[in-house]
What does this fold into?
Amino acid sequence: SAVISQKPSRDICQRGTSLTIQCQVDSQVTMMFWYRQQPGQSLTLIATANQGSEATYESGFVIDKFPISRPNLTFSTLTVSNMSPEDSSIYLCSEGDGETQYFGPGTRLLVL
Amino acid sequence: AQKVTQAQTEISVVEKEDVTLDCVYETRDTTYYLFWYKQPPSGELVFLIRRNSFDEQNEISGRYSWNFQKSTSSFNFTITASQVVDSAVYFCALSDRGSTLGRLYFGRGTQLTVWP
It folds into this structure.
């Protein structure tokens, strides 16, 4: 199974600022996903990030708010822009090349 | 449309009791994957099991067992002789792509608390 790391593991941010979350996979993968988990809720897919193409966003998520980069087959970033308290969540990345989707440890974000 | 329903929001048991977590899914695909993940308080998502739609055999792994029934679109998870360390949120998920894994659709999760 792939080993996935995320940075930062947690952060506290002021409203109106932006935070970039990094996701590193220890092997090359084609498909990576970004999910959001709001407090006490399930996981919701933000976007699918394939290397060499623009990210595909789910309904309710837009590129201006959640820009994603995928510069190579082992790395991706998600930026949460112009944050508000409603953005307080756990953000998780995952890789989906194999038969099982493995997740990073998550980034806990609190927006004040 | 794909949908996963976990009707049990919270379950509390005492150590050594058996507990079953229910999962019902909806999909129009004939080929799909079902998953269970565990999320302890630390927040990471731990993979427990994957089952594809062509394999209805039940599976046992130690104290964990899974019952997959296509006739009722259910994929239930049983913990035998529960332990305090089993306390976590458990998510059932469905993948909507047949031969290549795609995005996952998650249920709302079941918070399991095991009391000593």
Observations:
- Chain B has a mean pLDDT of 91.
- The interface with chain A takes residues 33, 35, 37, 42-45, 47, 50, 52, 91, 95, 101-104, 106-109 of chain B (CB under 8 Å).
- The radius of gyration of chain B is 14 Å.
- The first strand of chain B starts at residue 3 and ends at 5.
